[in-house]
Design goal:
With 223 residues, this protein is of the alpha/beta class. It has one domain: Rossmann fold (3-Layer(aba) Sandwich). Helices cover 38% and strands 17% of the residues. It has a five-stranded parallel β-sheet with strand order 1-7-6-2-3.
Length: 223
């Protein structure tokens, strides 16, 4: 097996990406630990989070939405290759451990993922967030609950709506019917863009009793 990025033979084939390419991946310097957006680090969290606190507590991303992860995510969505999924999940786990070392975050009690609407699931055949979450749950030795949340309607015509309307729609999109008292949760997604989706999900998880929500994603889009 060869490295997905540079095509060099791999020493550990199940890793998918060689150590040199991992070293060369763009890293996120100086980001707010809560929202994952650029921040001077002069205060613990950025001014955006201080002004309007997100419902989640911590956001960890491997990189911004740029090359080469952008290309790899595209591959992940359209060609369902298990070795690529594992390689990307491994990068996420490494990013999580790095944050654990720097910020002392604790291991979550359980793991879930952003659900895909069933029509999209049916047309694509899989949920990429679920595929990434599965190995991460195994490596962290935690239970994975892919169906903790239900997604109600397809968010397809969102682009034509005003920002306010979009946020309102997203807030009504998810529901959770589980008792999560005193549970800390790790929520997995592939890309976080506006943060509206993970915010709506985190609101629901906390409404059900969750004490802490960590979000782990491959890419955080810098707005
Ligand atoms: Zn390589
Ligand atoms: Zn922030």
């Amino acid at each position: 097996m060869r490295c997905i990025l540079c095509n060099m033979p791999l020493f550990l084939s199940h890793h998918g990406i060689c150590s040199q390419c991992i070293k060369n991946l763009p890293t996120q310097n100086k980001v707010c630990p809560q929202c994952g957006l650029p921040h001077s680090l002069s205060t613990p969290i950025c001014y955006r989070c201080r002004e309007q606190k997100p419902s989640w507590d911590e956001l960890i991303a491997v990189s911004n939405y740029i090359h080469p992860l952008k290309k790899l995510i595209h591959h992940l969505k359209f060609y369902h290759k298990i070795e690529l999924t594992h390689a990307l999940a491994r990068l996420m786990l490494l990013a999580w451990y790095k944050r654990r070392v720097t910020n002392g975050i604790s291991k979550p009690d359980l793991i879930t993922c952003v659900p895909l609407h069933h029509i999209r699931y049916w047309s694509r055949g899989f949920n990429q967030a679920e595929q990434l979450a599965k190995p991460i749950a195994k490596w962290l030795n935690r239970m994975f609950y892919p169906h903790l949340l239900q997604r109600k309607q397809i968010a397809s015509d969102q682009k034509s709506l005003s920002l306010e309307k979009r946020v309102q729609n997203v807030e009504k999109l998810f529901s959770c019917y589980h008792h999560l008292s005193n549970r800390s949760i790790l929520l997995i997604d592939d890309i976080v863009t506006t943060g509206n989706t993970i915010n709506a999900i985190s609101q629901q998880l906390k409404r059900c009793g969750a004490t802490n929500v960590q979000v782990l994603c491959l890419c955080r889009t810098v707005l």
